[in-house]
């Protein structure tokens, strides 16, 4: 199957380095301490955060840091006619673990000893990239809850089909069986907190696909709020608050290029 036409367009009309349209909204669940809905194309995810609060199981309580728990699930209607796996299956358990470990890398758990933070993530519509969408939704929900973090986490995936690196795979591309790299980064600290790959890739090709995914993470942070990184929409739409991250002009230029489907060839522009 041809996933990239001779004109350089994918099945959904995007260019290889073009992301799907993003939409993010926070404060959706009234009884949660923090919540967010994150959409990328036809993929839609909701996340809710409760805590920090008293540890329910005292045997799990830690005297030097907070306990972070995560539960991932998919709504029965999220995949249409595709097969729906039961709650608690192996994939759900794995993704719950991935989200928890990724969030633990950014939460300042040592500031909240003997407490518990619960993260619930549910996929409402699945059209590829659900893992990245869940991480982005969880990050926004943690921010909405006022959980102290050393940095936010942004996540994006990239694949390799028809000898072409593709950014932000949809369901058709993701289910083609090609290599798929999912990356999560801490943009301010310039650190990778998540790296997963399905299938095998030659080293030089892997570096290109991973770099594209990292660039997608940075651009996703920019596009999700429609403004330069460093600012988030207030939970009640009353204004804008900063989380102290101001990118240099090269990063902004590179983000704007990615949003227009262009990738700057010089990787040293983003450090």
From TrEMBL:
GO cellular component terms listed in the entry, alphabetical order: cytoplasmic exosome (RNase complex); nuclear exosome (RNase complex); nucleolus
GO biological process: nuclear mRNA surveillance; poly(A)-dependent snoRNA 3'-end processing; rRNA catabolic process; U4 snRNA 3'-end processing
InterPro entries: ExoRNase_PH_dom1, ExoRNase_PH_dom2, ExoRNase_PH_dom2_sf, PNPase/RNase_PH_dom_sf, Ribosomal_Su5_D2-typ_SF, RNase_PH
Source lineage: Eukaryota, Viridiplantae, Streptophyta, Embryophyta, Tracheophyta
Organism annotation: Citrus x changshan-huyou
Record protein name field: Uncharacterized protein
Subcellular location: Cytoplasm; Nucleus, Nucleolus
Keyword Cytoplasm set for record: yes
Single annotated GO MF: RNA binding
Keywords: Cytoplasm, Exosome
């Amino acid at each position: 199957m041809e996933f990239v036409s001779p004109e350089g367009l994918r099945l959904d009309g995007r260019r290889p380095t073009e992301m799907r349209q993003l939409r993010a909204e926070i404060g959706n669940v009234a009884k949660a301490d923090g919540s967010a809905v994150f959409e990328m194309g036809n993929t839609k995810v909701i996340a809710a955060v409760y805590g920090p609060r008293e540890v329910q199981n005292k045997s799990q309580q830690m005297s030097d840091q907070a306990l972070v728990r995560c539960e991932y699930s998919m709504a029965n209607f999220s995949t249409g006619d595709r097969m729906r796996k039961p709650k608690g299956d192996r994939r759900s358990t794995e993704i719950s673990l991935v989200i928890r470990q990724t969030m633990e890398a950014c939460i300042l758990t040592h500031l909240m000893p003997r407490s518990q933070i619960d993260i619930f993530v549910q996929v409402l519509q699945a059209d590829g990239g659900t893992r990245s969408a869940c991480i982005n939704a969880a990050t926004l929900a943690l921010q909405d809850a006022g959980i102290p973090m050393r940095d936010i986490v942004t996540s994006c995936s990239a694949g390799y089909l028809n000898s072409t690196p593709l950014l932000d795979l949809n369901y058709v591309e993701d289910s083609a069986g090609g290599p798929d790299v999912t990356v999560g980064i801490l943009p301010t600290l310039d650190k990778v907190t998540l790296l997963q790959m399905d299938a095998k890739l030659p080293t030089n090709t892997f570096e290109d696909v991973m770099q594209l995914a990292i660039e997608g993470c940075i651009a996703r942070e920019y596009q999700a709020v429609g403004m330069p990184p460093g600012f988030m929409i207030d939970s009640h739409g009353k204004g804008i608050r900063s989380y102290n991250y101001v990118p240099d002009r090269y990063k902004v230029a590179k983000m704007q290029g990615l949003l227009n489907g262009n990738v700057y060839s010089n990787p040293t522009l983003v450090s």
